[in-house]
Amino acid sequence: MMADFELSEPTSQRVKSIDALRGFDMFWIIGGGSLVRSFAEVYPCSFLKFLSSQCEHVRWEGFRFEDLIFPLFLFIVGVVLPYSISSRMQRGATHKQLYYHIFLRTAILLVMGLVFNGLLNFDFARMRYAGVLQRIAICYFFASLLTMHCKVRGLAITLVSILVLYWAALMLVPVPGFGAGVITPEGCLSSYIDQKLLIGSLYYGYGDNEGILSTLPAVCSCLLGVLAGYWLRSGKSPERKAGGLLGAGLLCLLLGFLWGKQFAIIKVIWTSSFVLFAGGWSLLLLALFYYVIDVRKCWKWSFFFIVIGSNAIAIYFLQRVVDFREIAEFFCGGLASASGPWGAVILVVGVIAIKWLLLWFLYRRRIFLKV
Questions:
Q1: DSSP alpha helices (H): ranges in the chain?
Q2: Gap between the Cα atoms of 26 and 308, Å rounded
Q3: Which tops the pLDDT comparison, 7 or 237?
Q4: Which pLDDT score is estimated for 14?
Q5: Which one of 220, 291, 324, 347 is most buried, counting C-beta atoms within 10 A?
Q6: What are phi and psi of 149, to 5 degrees?
């Protein structure tokens, strides 16, 4: 679910906490959730059951940790943009060159998303055209252009405007057969537009998780990251930067929670309250990682996550074409069979270990698959 957008900058110019947070986010894609669930099955105490439930998406309304993974990634994409765009401009890149770079990356991500969804099967009638990589591409495209042409105030106004307009559209525009303000899978405006405009199959029948209208507020998740990136690049002291991220995160959580009382927190259609609530958690995580790694200089523990995040797009695609479970069973199957109920945990650990060792091999040899 992740693309690696900033792997070519010199390490000295990088904020280690951003790399570590990207890897932390990706960890849950390569098996972190499965590890928690396998522990809960072996030792079903109330705490592990709670953690296991947090590693599953809510069906519609509500919020769990699993629902944070995608918006956190979009947030991280945004955090990097002020660094990457300013770095290219400092190296003498013209606006024309930047536009070309942005358009090329967007096009590659869109094509990769379609291939991931089965483009090469040539079953165009049943293919799903929306998807995670497609949404990343669109959010990256618009957030990059806005970062190029807007100052912080303009970015903030754009973010708020999109969230308010999206809320107003879903509340006020009537859907045939349901009316206005119906926030259900069948009756919401987002689902209706997907049914009318998206060809092929839809993720949840009535609409798509990465549908047309809901991509607009998803851009705001990226813009929240852009604003955080500008804050990190400011001349403030490291302690004040961490404190500012903390305060902004708490404020977004509060606003998202309160707005959610009237406009429910729903990841599937990326409601405005969801943007703020998920953005609040993203800001808090960035504040924590930044304070521990870049302020307190305690970064060695984060190497595990940095390795994962450094080749995110590679492992994302490899998971699609390589049966890592079968490889883990080849190496760990005997131990798993002899370990009784702990066998499932051993196999999940084996899968994660094999993926990490592969990524470490690529990392050590400076091989980074990037868009």
A1: 16-27, 33-42, 46-54, 69-90, 95-116, 132-149, 152-172, 189-197, 215-232, 238-260, 272-289, 303-309, 312-321, 324-337, 343-364
A2: 7
A3: 237
A4: 64
A5: 220
A6: -115, -5
